[in-house]
Design a protein that fits this description.
This protein is mainly β and 279 residues long. It has one domain. The protein is 13% helix and 42% strand. The protein contains four helices and 21 strands. Strands 2, 3, 13, 14, 15, 18, 19 and 21 form an eight-stranded mixed sheet that branches. It has a five-stranded antiparallel sheet with strand order 6-7-8-9-10, with helices on one face. Strand 7 and strand 8 form a beta hairpin. It is globular, with a radius of gyration of 19 Å. Pfam families: Cu_amine_oxidN1. This is Copper amine oxidase-like protein. InterPro entries: Cu_amine_oxidase-like_N, Mao_N_sf.
Length: 279
């Protein structure tokens, strides 16, 4: 009953997803593809106020708020000292803005890049976090995917909300599609207005086989401060299921999605994607 109620509320929210068809072409992997972060089955495409990025030292940087909200760690930030202390279980890590030294469980360690402030938010190198917190991680050198594999993280509030409203046909392969590149154009939260924008996304069929028409599910989720937006994978009243064309083995394809918050003055916090196929 609770899930049905959530789905009903979701369908009534003032949110729009573009159902434009995809452009499909055969090509090899984009050599400019940057490392992408993944938590279980969820690719992380955007984190407020800026998507994870590769710094000049070729290290993937993530906002420290991400560590708390998505990885279940405790974060304390001292603005005066510009220091962040991150703890999870018995592990702790203390970092300082613009410093390549960190304290890992009482031992001073050296990093090859330094935390920095971006748009008033602290960004830290994911590598040192993974090492110091002993996170269960898989690294795929060929696809440049850094994946934290920990089923307990699916119980985090954000991911559990997505699961509650995500009604799908039976999934055949959770690793069939790889996001290669994304770009977001967005209006910021403005008093008395909705936050709107457009996401452009390029992905590749990495399933090792052709994907039949109707089976592709590059599923994008927009997580706002107070609500979650995603397209439906099964027919809903006044919301048809989008077209899902045939995709050749190894083909690169693109999608463009328009999005809108459900409430005024609401900030977009995250964009996630699932790269799967249906049976």
């Amino acid at each position: 009953m609770r899930k049905e109620f959530i789905r009903m509320l979701f369908s009534l929210m003032v949110m729009v997803v573009s159902l434009a068809p995809m452009n499909v072409s055969f090509a090899s992997s984009d050599p400019s593809t940057k490392p992408i972060f993944k938590i279980n089955d969820f690719f992380v495409l955007y984190t407020s106020p800026k998507a994870p990025y590769v710094d000049p030292n070729n290290r993937l940087m993530i906002p420290v708020r991400f560590v708390s909200e998505l990885l279940g760690a405790n974060v304390n930030y001292n603005g005066r000292l510009q220091e962040a202390t991150i703890s999870k279980g018995r592990n702790s890590l203390k970092l300082k803005v613009d410093s390549t030294e960190a304290d890992n469980n009482g031992t001073v360690i050296s990093m090859d890049t330094a935390p920095e402030i971006v748009q008033n938010h602290l960004y830290i190198p994911i590598r040192v976090l993974i090492d110091s917190m002993n996170l269960p991680v898989k690294w795929d050198k060929e696809t440049a995917v850094i994946q934290v594999v920990d089923e307990s993280l699916n119980d985090m509030t954000i991911f559990s909300q997505i699961t509650d409203i995500n009604v799908t046909p039976k999934v055949a392969d959770n690793n069939a599609i790889l996001p290669l590149w994304s770009n977001i154009q967005m209006t910021g939260p403005t008093l008395g207005k909705l936050t709107t924008g457009t996401l452009s996304l390029r992905a590749q069929n990495v399933s090792g086989q052709d994907i039949s028409a109707g089976k592709e599910d590059l599923h994008v989720i927009f997580s706002f401060e107070k609500g979650t937006m995603m397209e439906m994978d099964v027919p809903m009243p006044d919301q048809p299921v989008r077209e899902r064309p045939f995709i050749d083995k190894g083909a690169i394809f693109e999608r463009t999605l328009d999005f809108s918050s459900g409430m005024y003055n609401e900030q977009l916090n995250y964009i996630f994607a699932l790269g799967r196929t249906f049976e």
